[in-house]
Amino acid sequence: MCGIAAIFAYGKAAPTIDGDELLAMREQMFARGPDGGGQWISDDRRVGLANRRLSIIDISPAGAQPMFNADRSLAITFNGEIYNYAELREKLIREGRRFQSHCDTEVVLELYATRGEAMLNELRGMYAFAIWDRDKRGLFLARDPFGIKPLYYSDDGHTLRLASQVKALRAGGKIDNAPEPAGHVGFFLWGHVPDPYTFYRSIRSLPAGSSMWIDEHGARAPTTFCDITTLLRDGEEAKPITDNRELAERLRSALSETVRYHLVADVPVGVFLSSGLDSTAITALAAQQGGILRTVTLGFEEYRGSEADETPLAEQFAKRCGATHRTVWVSRGDFEAERDHLFEAMDRPSTDGVNTFFVSLAAKRANLKVALSGLGGDELFASYPSFEEIPRTVRWLRPFRNWGAFGAGVRRLSAPVLKRFTSPKYAGLFEYGGTYAGAYLLRRGMFMPWELPDLLDPDLVRAGWQELQTLLRLEETIDGISNPRLKVSALEMNWYMRHQLLRDSDWAGMGQSVEIRVPFVDVDLLRSLAPLLASKHPPSKRDMAASASDLITPQMLQRGKTGFQVPVREWLLTDESGNRAAPRQWTDRGLRGWAKHVYRHFPNAQLRETNQRSQVRGHRSEVEPGGTRSVASQKIMGHDRACPSKRILVFRIGQLGDTIVALPAMWLARKHFPNARITLLCDRHPGKTHVLASDLLRGAGIFDDYLSYPVARPGELMRPAHMAGLLAAIRRGRFDTLVYLAPNNRKPEQIERDRRFFRMAGIRNFIGMHGFQQLEVKEPGRPMKLMPRESELLLRRLAASGLRVEPEDESRMDLGLGPEDDAAVSSWTARQPSDGDRVWVAVGPGSKMPAKRWPLRRFQEVIVDLINEFDIWPVVFGGEEDRVIGDWLLVQWRRGYNAAGALDLRASAAALKRCALFLGNDTGTMHLAAAVGVPCVAIFSSCEGCELIECIELGNECLKRIGRPEVLDACRDILARNRNGRTVSAVVKAANESLPQEAYAIAERLRRGLAADAVYLFGSHARGDATPDSDLDFLVVVPRSAQSRYERAVAARKLVGDVHFPKDIIVLTRAEWEKGLRAPCSLSSTVIREGVALDGKP
Q1: What is the rounded distance in angstroms from the CA atom of residue 974 to the CA atom of residue 843?
Q2: What are residue 599's phi and psi, to 5 degrees?
Q3: Rounded to whole angstroms, how far apart are CA atoms 875 and 903?
Q4: Which of 227, 299, 987, 1090 pairs with 1022 at a CA distance of 20 to 30 A?
């Protein structure tokens, strides 16, 4: 299994091949072939082949690609497996051909040399390849009959490019990205994009069972060499088999043979085993072949122990077959961790394949490169409901198929009503249900044709529908077949299986570097079974399983069809904490919402829905151009300083981070109105995943009471009932003054609306409604600019209203944490495993906005590196919704605590204080860590102000550009300074035991008062020097911007006060400490009080 790419500049005017383009195409497909990569460009640079290799047959270097024949007249890049290669190789050897390897790729090359295009009729397997024929100056392409392996090409009239993935073609940067209407319409019609279309007009898929020749005259039309419909039609016309024993023997023999061929490999081959009959039969047939049988079962933690849990039955049968079995459990945390990987692997949009992606993950975790799947059994043995429902629908509605106007009229009248309470497909029964093509569209279609203009631009829908010719193509699929069962088989194999199931198996398996083989999807098997399928008594799924092996018991045969259940829809319909989510797309029936969600992840999406993003613009200043306040601004301010405020309402909206950055302004209000009763008014979001400001601030000493109101959607007003209730509550409070701390992106019309509302509530004095500063909006493509802090802007507004702001007010982030908060942390840690007295590192991997999430895998990798280098103890912080990913990370790290959802906000703050570092996304947890003085490595995107909840179009590209090395270096920089000492959180252990609380207080005062990077505590046995290896009681590290050493020392002494700590206070700059210098200013408390410094300055 491989990823292939090629460029052929066949036109005389075509530029020669760009090697970097070919390399970019190849490396886009790294997951398809992590075992090796090769590239070849002809001497005239008119043709180039490239390959990524997953070594399975002849894993030696002799199997590397691109591969040449002996005289180098032929070159090939090949993807797939030829299961009968050994027989073909022996035949070619008898014909005089010589081989340099034992690889199936070389067999294909030599077979082409002797047979030309006719060689395709001898291949048994799955494949897509390109052969460069030097003598004919042409390129030969081919794809297997079922289309198991993909092959995409783009021809601009001068140069042809091809690859195993659409994304690989686009990675070269030379492809026209104009949208293909048929691809977009086809996706919503089916939930996948039908071949030969893609989302791009310039990219086509080579049809299954076809070949194509390209030379200096350009590309010829694809030629079909094998057609599934023809094989079924031939089976219907074959001599019927009436003998039951012959029928049973042919069935058993054909099944045994296909499994035997699909086990061919030079690496271990496993079987995806569930409790279904398809995988059970394949496992039993594989067991009969001898050798070591390996099976893997995927289990979901959500289903463990329930009726949906297939693992017990699978494990029992694996034991019965003597298999080496492994059950791999997957949780929601794995889904969250793999979400980005899922969409990266999904080369073309699909509403299916998530189950295959995770079962491939299970195979990868079981150290398997190859696994057999039961895919195709339902299409062969008619176990889908469609095999009964479609013929029945056609029989009932056949009389109406010629009454097109009647059916269309019924549909137009009934569709608006039916879609409200049932499937909208019922509206099209009379219009479409009278033919197999129409009935199949009703059965398998995702959105109906008449619904498409509501999703996509009507002109695009019109062009796409015209190009697809869906009903005509469906009729062609069953042309010449009269047997109802075979008609449905032809439809299912050529449409659902080919365009969805097989394509999903390719991208999902290759995304995990696992080759998925499908024994039921085999041309020779179909040729053998087609006459049986066309007989009066065709074999059923149970007949198939019964004939496969005696290992399958009668009880197993009687089990009903369960299907492979995956809790992905439940994961997507709920947030991580289990609360029901309600985004608009999930109000759709079935997989329709998932279809929209998937579609938005792909470039060129044309969905007729506006991205929900808030426009962040600064306000016009309420100061006139000349600098004087307008009359209007004076009225807005309206604060009467002559009348002291008694009852104050502080208005601040937002979540955790918004509350924290407003702390200096909140404390300033308390400072100026020490005797007033102050109430905080904040917004309240539904569900447990959002926090209330009161959860954080109760006990801080700022507010006496709290009011909240339900939040409205962006751009919407509150519901009248909610607004009336809030108005009444404020009136009952009899507030005389409002401190307006609304965010600085508030628009003037919003400010005026708020002022009118609060005046209606009886408030007459307003503080903070003046002095909004307009900020520059980031221009696309321009560097980010340093803007004033939100806390600074809030204080400026309060100052503009007459409140005096002192320097110490600007950085007051005091949460008023006390012993009860520390006790809550101690109680929690007492129930956890010991941290071995290791340094804690806080990790915040979550965010309510997926657009702000750095890939979870990178958090995992960075922390692993820090564990290996610093022996740290990671602690995951976040809300209840982050608990799942926290559990997953701890499993990967094999150490740490998961505090997400386990501690309340104030206890979380107390726990964060114990950490030497915070590493996380742009979240409230980051702000909380900063508020308690923890150095932060915070990961922000460069999309300043985009405010996207989910970055669909670019897939968090800006965040992904932030690499693991730079984040790791930032963490190392902070932890390196802490290597020789203990953090502030360890002060009680490190300080003189007679003064533990005083030591804690001193450390906090020094850190805050000096704006120190950190305060380090060492053992109480200090030596006389002051190097980084010293055992000092205190070490204060201050920024380089600090003033003279004497002034720093005096400032430290003032902050310490009259507490007599027995050892010196060492004051160093950051640079001095990192260089390991001896203390430039080491002053005892006595020396400091006398005002004498070592540098001689008074």
Answers
A1: 14
A2: -55, -40
A3: 12
A4: 1090
246 and 191 in a single domain? The answer is no
Rounded distance, CA 777 to CA 231, Å? 63
Quote the percentage of the chain above a pLDDT of 90: 50
Cβ neighbours around 302 below 10 Å, total: 16
- The boundaries of the domain holding residue 450 are 386-488
CATH number at residue 788: 3.40.50
Q: What is the phi/psi pair of residue 229, to 5°? A: -60, -40
Q: Are 768 and 740 in contact (CB under 8 A)?
A: yes
290: left (phi over 0), alpha (psi -120 to 50) or beta: left
- In three-state secondary structure terms, 947 is coil
The residue to which tokens 């180098």 are assigned: 72
pLDDT tens column, 94-151: 999 999 999 999 999 999 999 999 999 999 999 999 999 999 999 999 999 999 999 9
Using a 10 angstrom Cβ sphere, with 0-12 exposed, 13-18 middle and 19 or more buried, the burial of residue 368 is buried
CA distance 539 to 533: 7
In a domain, 947, yes or no: yes
| 722 and 657 share one domain | yes
Asked if omega into 34 is within 30° of 0 (cis), the reply is no
Q: How far apart are CA 87 and CA 177, in angstroms?
A: 44
Residues 345 and 435 in one domain: no
How far apart CA 985 and CA 916 sit, in angstroms, is 8
Q: Is the pLDDT of residue 580 over 50?
A: no
Q: What angle do CA 516, 193, 361 make, to 5 degrees?
A: 30
Structure tokens at 633: 């601004």
Residues 792, 712 within the same domain = yes
CA distance 83 to 124: 6
How many Cβ atoms sit within 10 Å of the Cβ of residue 1085? 17
d(CA 830, CA 823): 10
Domain end among 444, 466, 488: 488
614: its two tokens: 């808030």
Same structural domain for residues 558 and 659? no
Alpha helices, DSSP H, located in 82-219: 85-94, 104-115, 166-171, 181-190
Q: How many residues does the chain have?
A: 1098
Number of structural domains (the chain) is 5
Please choose, from the candidates 1069, 1057, 442, the residue with its C-alpha nearest in 3D space to the C-alpha of residue 1088: 1057
CB 885 within 8 A of CB 846: yes
pLDDT digits (tens, 9 = 90+) for 8-38: 999 999 999 999 999 999 999 999 999 999 9
| Residue 229 exposure: Cα atoms within 13 Å on the Cβ side | 17
DSSP E strand stretches across 661-742: 677-684, 705-710, 737-740
Residue 524 lies inside a defined structural domain of this protein: yes
- The reply to whether 855 and 874 lie within a common domain is yes
| Kind and range of the H or E run holding 840 | strand 840-844
Boundary of a domain, candidates 226, 250, 279? 226
How far, in Å, CA of 86 to CA of 125, rounded?
A: 12
Asked if 433 and 416 sit in the same domain, the reply is: yes
**Chain CA centroid to CA 1067, Å:** 47
